């Protein structure tokens, strides 16, 4: 194959990209050839290490060959792209986990697909000409080939910045961000490669390394952390728009050229990955969810058209000039049911799931599991159903032969009663996963009973409300053993965007109680502030612009603003139809005070929030309204009311 040279030279397996006139862009057959060589050399004792380089001075590899993707996509062949990405990602994963040293020499441009080949090995060498970037948002993709792994691991909020702006990193920047290991003068590379071929080992590279100097990005880290710390792209752009520095103006200009859908999903993927559950397999899976849909549902065809077909550089993005709805982000990042990404040992097994409690939260959660290909059977005392979910007449029938039983129930007393029934019916080793919000004591009691019955148990209450349940963007706060958490993790990935293992049984409930005590108190303060601003004659939109980018920043203000027409769409824009009902906030705040009393914790703000919400629900008109409906309550009241 003239585009790539694969050979053994001495003790080195050698891979050289040979398309310098095309900036060594990665074609499909090149991917397959690299993977075949890696498989062949893995157990070959005559191969000590793998050395990857490229011809030409301009680029190691400036990305994938996207012209063919466009031609196939315009013709309606979306499966071509899915096959390409699945095979490419499998090759990327093999480089990452290869049992022998993989040494790459990254001159000039290393972008997109080049990052997947050159930046997952054990020794990543950069030089004075190196420029590394993830420019995918500019053509309607997201950073992929495992790039989101490095973005999630980058210091501070550098990952969000690099992933959305396509900023080109120098050698020093790449080392700072975790995309490279050593800076070596490019004049020394041929001699180092020859030494590796003739029996030298990778340790010799360290001796040849030079000081890369100060990373240019380091001078902007404070601004990057401040502006890119928001939950959404809108948060980021709002923050930047209130900064009159050259950095902020240049960054806004860069963001304005990118696909809003791609940027929104990039931020979402990085946020989902960041934390203790981060693995390359998870990063590639999330990337594949997007890329497998990019031709058919995303901006990729338009992005390629504008960049390399018509070359007008004027793409017409789907969501230009407005926020990307959370449902659109969720649609692009839902698990792939048909032909999911298959890496070695990572195929999700189809599980038999029993789901007890098909209410406003449980029904969409169960439906998402069914859409992901699981066999889901549900039970609800009210007789409610969920799309794709079969039903039975008893909780015990749901639990019989199930691999997992999930509960979404109103309170701890009901959980105890249901557990007593289903634990007897469940098979040994199965998982009981309680996603209800209940008292810590109930969670721990059921955990003990499950352990006695030879079953796994995790308490995993959720945050995100009805919208998050429908969109599959819930956050799970899990308590239980590591084995229970790992057993539940594939299901968390279907139903939500993030799962945090908080500790042993009951820790999930403790985290939820603390989280919602903060939420209740901050929502009251946010509503009070808007009511005060009204009486002071301050425009709500201007107040939002100030508070959302300064020290008053909070989730209640920025993501769930209680003022209609201000900020992202929220229940306030729908007549305060509940996303999270006020009576549920009363329940959760009551649990927080019950827990506080049990451990002798002083929580006066939590107690006051409970008293206000209880009055709102029981004596005013708050029942059946969203908890953010506190705003019209305060609007109608004076100080002496």
Keywords:
9-stranded mixed β-sheet, 6-stranded mixed β-sheet, 2-enoyl-CoA Hydratase, Chain A, domain 1, 641 residues, N-(1-d-carboxylethyl)-l-norvaline Dehydrogenase, domain 2
- Main structural class: alpha/beta
Share of residues in strands: 5-15%
Average pLDDT for all residues: 93
Radius of gyration: 27 Å
**What is the end-to-end distance?**
82 Å
The CATH top-level class label of the largest domain: Alpha Beta
CATH superfamily of the largest domain: 2-enoyl-CoA Hydratase, Chain A, domain 1
The CATH architecture of the largest domain: Alpha-Beta Complex
Q: How many structural domains in the coordinates? A: 3
CATH topology of the largest domain: 2-enoyl-CoA Hydratase, Chain A, domain 1
Q: Would you mind describing this structure in some detail?
A:
It is a single chain. The protein has 641 residues and is α/β, with parallel strands linked by helices. The protein has three domains: 4-333, 2-enoyl-CoA Hydratase, Chain A, domain 1; 352-505, Rossmann fold, CATH 3.40.50; 513-635, N-(1-d-carboxylethyl)-l-norvaline Dehydrogenase, domain 2. Helix content is 47%, strand content 12%. Strands 10, 11, 12, 13, 14, 15, 16, 17 and 18 form a nine-stranded mixed β-sheet that branches. A six-stranded mixed β-sheet has the order 1-2-3-5-7-9, with helices on both faces. A three-stranded parallel β-sheet has the order 4-6-8. α13 (260-273) crosses α16 (326-333). It holds the Pfam family NAD_binding_11. Its EC number is 1.1.1.31. This is 3-hydroxyisobutyrate dehydrogenase.
């Amino acid at each position: 194959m003239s585009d790539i040279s694969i050979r053994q030279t001495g003790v080195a397996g050698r891979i050289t990209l040979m398309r310098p006139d095309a900036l060594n862009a990665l074609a499909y057959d090149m991917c397959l050839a690299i993977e075949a060589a890696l498989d062949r050399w893995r157990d070959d004792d005559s191969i000590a290490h793998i050395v990857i380089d490229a011809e030409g001075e301009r680029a190691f590899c400036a990305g994938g060959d996207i012209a063919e993707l466009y031609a196939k996509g315009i013709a309606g062949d979306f499966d071509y792209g899915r096959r390409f990405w699945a095979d490419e990602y499998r090759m990327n994963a093999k480089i990452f986990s290869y049992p022998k040293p993989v040494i790459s020499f990254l001159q000039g441009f290393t972008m997109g697909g080049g990052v997947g080949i050159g930046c997952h090995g054990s020794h990543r060498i950069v030089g004075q000409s190196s420029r590394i970037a993830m420019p995918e948002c500019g053509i309607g993709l997201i950073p992929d080939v495992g790039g989101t792994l490095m973005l999630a691991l980058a210091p501070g909020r550098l990952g969000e910045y690099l992933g959305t702006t396509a900023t080109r990193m120098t050698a020093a920047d790449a080392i700072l961000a975790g995309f490279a290991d050593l800076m070596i003068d490019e004049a020394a590379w041929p001699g180092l490669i020859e030494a590796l071929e003739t029996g030298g080992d990778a340790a010799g590279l360290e001796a040849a390394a030079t000081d890369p100097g100060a990373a240019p990005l380091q001078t902007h880290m404070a601004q990057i952390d401040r502006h890119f710390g928001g939950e959404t792209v809108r948060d980021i752009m709002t923050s930047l728009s209130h900064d009159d520095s050259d950095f902020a103006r240049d960054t806004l200009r860069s963001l304005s050229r990118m696909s809003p859908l791609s940027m929104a999903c990039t931020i979402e993927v990085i946020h989902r990955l960041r934390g203790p559950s981060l693995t390359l397999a998870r990063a590639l899976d999330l990337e594949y969810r997007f890329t497998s849909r990019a031709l058919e549902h995303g901006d990729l065809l338009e992005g390629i058209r504008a960049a390399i077909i018509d070359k007008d550089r004027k793409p017409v993005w789907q969501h230009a000039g407005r926020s990307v709805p959370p449902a659109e982000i969720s649609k692009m990042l839902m698990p792939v049911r048909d032909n999911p990404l298959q890496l070695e040992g990572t195929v999700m097994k189809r599980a038999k799931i029993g789901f007890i409690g098909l209410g406003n939260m449980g029904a969409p959660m169960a439906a998402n599991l069914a859409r992901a290909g699981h066999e889901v059977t549900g039970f609800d005392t009210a007789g409610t159903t969920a799309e794709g979910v079969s039903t039975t007449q008893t909780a015990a029938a749901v639990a019989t032969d199930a691999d997992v039983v999930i509960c979404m129930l109103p309170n701890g007393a009901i959980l105890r009663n249901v557990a007593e029934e289903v634990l007897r019916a469940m098979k040994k080793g199965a998982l009981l996963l309680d996603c209800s919000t209940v008292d810590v004591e109930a969670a721990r009691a059921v955990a003990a009973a499950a352990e006695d019955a030879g079953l796994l148990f995790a308490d995993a209450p959720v945050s995100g409300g009805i919208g998050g349940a429908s969109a599959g963007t819930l956050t799970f706060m899990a308590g239980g053993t590591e084995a229970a958490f790992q057993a539940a993790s594939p299901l968390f990935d279907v139903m939500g965007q993030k799962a945090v293992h908080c500790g042993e049984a009951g820790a999930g409930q403790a985290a939820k109680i603390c989280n919602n005590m903060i939420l209740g108190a901050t929502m009251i303060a946010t509503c009070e502030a808007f009511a005060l601003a009204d009486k002071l004659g301050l425009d709500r939109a201007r107040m939002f612009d100030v508070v959302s980018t300064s020290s008053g920043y909070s989730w209640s203000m920025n993501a769930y603003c209680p003022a209609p027409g201000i900020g992202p769409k929220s229940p306030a824009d729908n007549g305060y139809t509940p996303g999270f009902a006020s009576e549920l906030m009363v329940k959760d705040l009551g649990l927080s005070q019950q827990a506080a009393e049990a451990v002798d914790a002083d929580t006066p703000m939590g107690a006051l929030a409970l008293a206000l919400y209880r009055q709102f629900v029981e004596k005013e008109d708050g029942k059946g309204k969203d908890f953010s409906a506190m705003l019209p309550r305060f609007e109608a009241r004076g100080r002496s009311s």
